[in-house]
Amino acid sequence: MQRRALLQLGLVAVSAPTLALAAGKAILANAHGAVGDGRTLNTKAIQAAIDEAAKTGATVAFKPGVYRTGSIFLKSGVTLRLDKGVTLLGSQNLADYPELPTRVAGIELTWPAALVNVYKQKNVRIVGDGTIDGDGKVFWDSYWALRRKYDPKGLLWAADYDCKRPRLIQVFGSEQVELAGPRLRRAGFWTVHVCYSHDIHVADLEIRNNEGGRGPSTDGVDIDSSHDVLVERIDVACNDDALCIKAGRDADGLRVARPTRDIVIRDCVIRDASAGVTFGSETSGGFHDIKISGLTVHHPTPVGILFKSAHTRGGTVKNIDISGMDLHDVFTVFRVNLNWNPAYSYAKIPAGMTDVPPYWQVMTQHVPPEQGRCRLSDVRVRDIKAIGAKTAFEVAAFPDLPLEGFAFENLDLDVQAGGRIANARNWTFTRSKIDTLDGKPPEVVDSSGVTGL
User: What's the number of domains the chain is made of?
Assistant: First the structure.
């Protein structure tokens, strides 16, 4: 079954064999001058080892130690092996992360590179039982400092873009990439960002971003305008989206128009995040053919399944299959919010501000209403068990553009209240039980063809 799923994605079932093959002869970064004392900046030495390995498609490895480094760039054919006892520790100096064209939170712009980059490469592996630690608190603190200046000016929407912080791992414009095994810690921004890429396998990661504080926007795994991606066995605690599907923001995302499609996410544990699985809010390029299964979501994660967008995002989201989730003490089981976080979602330059970054102008481009509303349909949700939840449903869309064709099967929800479903059409509930304190099912308003509740 596992191999069949991998082959459908155009991937090869290489998780265990890759680790075994990568354990052979390797080029030691230490031979190029890398020092694992936790203080020496090793960027040039590690990059030199990578460049040598790229000549023959070799593996780069390390003696046990803690290796402080800025951005490193893996190249086609190279395996980066981080054995147990090896830590890559991110520099706290933003100058050690060179800026390059990328996409950040749905907008194409020039931004600092990640700590570990697979940038426009092919056939790259990052494997092993070691650790990649972003040491990101200095970047978290810089964000909160900027927020204190921006929030009174109505610039919450700009803070994520103006406060430049390195992601932990970026896979951009690449193919046939495997990331399997390492422990990921304290990302300065998003932890794993897969963007404009395909045939990607992300597996067996332990992500911990709430050590020494709660890092803002420290998403776990973001899949962004990419296709044929398998994500499995991720154990995550972060301070934003744990597992997130994205495809661009507003006018810029509509211009790029690259969907996220043919994605499998399975057998993951979410211990602390903003939701178990999130679709959006960057929906502009659209999503389709997404399969989510085998997720366990724990308190204090507030939402089990979250769809979010905004009136300026647009995009079509369809053919989503979610199954086999266990939710423990979450606040809300299933939420659809297409007017999410207005202070962040709707960019507006304050009157009198003229000397602004070019991407501010991009973010404030007008999106006509007929293009700006997300269309969400054909969602299948089955075999969901929730214990100790507060609300089953918090759902709303647009009266003239309802949420079409949702099918729920075998729900077993122990909740305080059924909640509310609005703007739905042709929703079906089969073999589903929603136990509430007052014995009432979810309230259904401005909807038609909702059956089985």
Answer: 1
